[in-house]
Design a protein that fits this description.
This protein is mainly alpha-helical. The protein is built from ten helices and no strands.
């Protein structure tokens, strides 16, 4: 990797760490850059997953105030995220590289619809006596987080958008607190996948360390920006990023 390529990977890490903390989809910044500097797809994916773990921790630290009072929820949903992330990491090394390509844009599209319609859906469900469960979102959210974890361990682009869509619909909670939970869950998925990859896959340590350094900086930037956004602005940003992710994956 040349010095300029290293700078590009580091800058991509900053961008990914920032956007992951605010919304998600940072992989759509780093993954193409790693391919552009010559890494094979699987090695790029594995190195990227490992590199983004410190950024997730940085973003979660920046959102620590919004995490207060969510310990039991995080323990419950975190266990599902860990199991899903481990299974997804295993599938990455077993399944053909394009196995999820067709379904990913559909998943993102569904998540965006949930984000857009969440306030109206929540009011409708509440009026019919089926409002969201403030405590944990019920079995539906547990299964949804597990499924998102599988996808996150496998590839991870727009994992945050999927989590925000699910939790926005199934939890009666402030969007900023949901975003804080999203950062923890996505970090757990990336973390368990990274641990698995350490023993089972080839890692480009230069790329992983450059992304890690950049994502830590980006995580702090993202936390400062994201926590100041009003709900409607954050919701709009989620939709814009999600649409961009869909377009990139489809084109």
């Amino acid at each position: 990797m040349s010095p300029w390529e290293a700078v590009g990977v580091f800058a991509a890490g900053i961008g990914a760490g920032t956007i992951n903390t605010v919304v998600g989809s940072g992989t759509l910044i780093t993954f193409p850059v790693l391919l552009a500097v010559g890494l094979p797809p699987i090695t790029a994916n594995v190195s990227n997953t490992l590199g983004l773990v410190p950024g997730s921790l940085s973003g979660a630290l920046g959102y620590r105030a919004e995490l207060k009072g969510q310990r039991s929820r995080l323990l419950r949903l975190g266990s599902a995220a860990l199991l899903g992330g481990l299974l997804g990491a295993i599938l990455l090394l077993v399944l053909p590289s394009g196995a999820f390509q067709a379904i990913v844009p559909v998943l993102i599209g569904v998540a965006l619809l949930l984000v857009i319609l969440q306030p109206r859906l929540a009011r409708y469900l509440a009026a019919r006596g089926h409002g969201p469960d403030r405590a944990d979102g019920g079995v539906a959210l547990l299964v949804g987080v597990f499924g998102t974890g599988i996808y996150g361990g496998y590839f991870g682009a727009a994992q945050g958008v999927l989590l925000l869509g699910l939790m926005g619909l199934l939890l009666d909670e402030d969007l900023q607190r949901i975003n804080a939970t999203k950062n923890i869950l996505a970090g757990l998925v990336n973390g368990i996948a990274a641990v698995f990859f350490l023993f089972a896959a080839s890692i480009d340590w230069t790329a992983a360390l450059l992304i890690a350094a950049g994502s830590v900086i980006g995580g702090q930037i993202g936390a400062r920006v994201g926590r100041r956004l009003p709900p409607i602005a954050l919701r709009a940003l989620i939709v814009v990023v999600g649409l961009a992710a869909m377009a990139k994956l489809l084109l």
